[in-house]
Amino acid sequence: MRRIWAVSTNTIRQALRMKVAAVFILLLLVLLPLMGFTATGDGTLKGRLQTFVSYGLSLTSLLLSLLTIIVSIYAITSDIEHRQIYTVVTKPIRRYQIILGKVLGVLVLDLVLLALFAGIVYGVTSLIPRFLNASDEERQDATNEFYTARASLVPPVLDVQKEVVALYNKTKDQLDAFYRNMTREEILKQLTNRIRLEKRAAAVGQMLVWEFHNVRPRDPNQSLFIRFKYDVSVTAPDEQVYGEWRIGDLRQPQQDAGAQIPTRIWRETRKDVVRKFHEVEAPASVVAQDGYLAVGFFNPPGNETVVLFPVEDGLEVLYKADTFTANFVRAALLILCRLMFLACLGALAASFLSFPVAILFCLVIFLTGTISGFIVESFGYMSQNVSTIYTYTVQAVIQLLPQFDKYNPTKFLVPARLLSWGLLGEVALMMVCLKAVLLLALALVIFSFRELAKVVV
Q1: Which of 122, 158, 379, 424 has the fewest CB atoms within 10 Å of its CB?
Q2: Distance (Å, rounded) from C-alpha 214 to C-alpha 201?
Q3: Dist CA 429 CA 337 (whole Å)
Q4: β-pair type (293-298, 201-202)
């Protein structure tokens, strides 16, 4: 272990002497505080905070990722190109210890720099409200919708397969005539979306109820929020409709006013603009002791239109499940998992490729992982025009790569969504314990059998 640590210490010194490392560190030291007090967003306090965290963490992650790739490759290839490796391998040190020492040095440098720059982002985020003349309402919005970690619950996707098949068999001739250019699978998909939307539509005088289980607010004295967006069949001149919300334990009938057992139901009647997101705030104490929560929406007769909640983003229950600080720490650890994978990837590339080729190889992997979701979705659209085997092969290869876009920390911090320890553990298991360790093992094997010099007699 002493030999590995000696190699890692030398790697850190070598990295700090690199001009590119100095440039990246200087850029982050200057840009992060500057961005914190120049970001405007939508002009509100919450918008400024969201914009700064989004750009600040994204810039930190990008520059540290590039630095990790460059340093991990240069630390190995430079010793070979400058023939310093000859003097190293003649000493009592194994080749695997050289690779492990290089990777460890890069990871230690990443950990220190990530802690520094993540601390700057967190510190600036905490100081922004003190330097802005924000109203009390804006500060409250920032507290409820940014400085928190809210768990998200969405209604489960309804299984309507039997209804779809029955409807298709009953009206097959009419459907085939109407959808002339569609296959049977495409028609069934259209029917599935239509029936699911019908089950999330409230006619005049009708009430929709969504039930959730295992709802565990951090503090019952705080609030939970129902985030919703709805559409209508007939748009009113002012583009607004009324809605009566009932939130709480709807399993039992309501008690009379003089009953000894009070009902745990929060009621609110409001008028909202259609096709835009809104939030209903209710006390978290309405959640039953067993974690049950029901959300009911009643379409009053005065609307004279059907109210529809989109399947994708029509309704969402949000409640505080942790603090902003804990969520931010987990987001930083998520970035660290990415850096650990890239360090092992750089070591693998440097074990058998020259510096420029290894850089190109790692950048392709990094960019592909950054837009993996877009690539998979694109091949899904192309599946009708290309070979099915080719499509699934490409998708399988993409799935083997790290999905950086899927586990982007800003996707959790900006909307104040909870990044749980379970999800972080899942990412660490897949990205570090499996993929990164596999890359490191391949690097050790390849470098152990690599010919470093030829003996000429």
Answers
A1: 158
A2: 25
A3: 10
A4: unpaired
C-alpha 198/C-alpha 84 separation (Å) is 71
Question: Which residues, other chains included, contact 71 with Cβ-Cβ below 8 Å and sequence gap of 6+?
Answer: 11, 15, 18, 21, 106, 109, 346
> What digits encode the pLDDT tens for the residues 207-248?
999 999 888 888 888 888 999 998 998 888 899 999 999 999
Buried b (16+ CB within 10 A) or exposed e, 326-335: ebbebbbbbb
Strands of 240-248's sheet in order across: 207-212, 293-298, 240-248, 265-273
Q: What is the CATH number of domain 200-322?
A: 2.60.120
CA dist list (Å): 400 to 258, 349, 355, 376, 385:
62, 17, 24, 12, 24
Domain ranges in the chain are: 2-147+336-449, 200-322
Can you read off the two tokens belonging to residue 417?
Answer: 């969504």
- How far is the C-alpha of 350 from the C-alpha of 368, rounded, in Å? 19
Using CA atoms, how far apart are residues 166 and 185, in angstroms rounded to an integer?
A: 14
- Bridge partners for 15 per DSSP: none
Residue-wise pLDDT for 67-101, tens only, equals 999 999 999 888 877 776 666 656 667 888 888 99
Query: Could you tell me the two tokens for 286?
Result: 């309405």
DSSP, residue by residue, 69-119: HHHHHHHHHHHHHTTTHHHHHTSS--HHHHHHHHHHHHHHHHHHHHHHHHH
Contact 398, 372 (CB under 8 A): yes
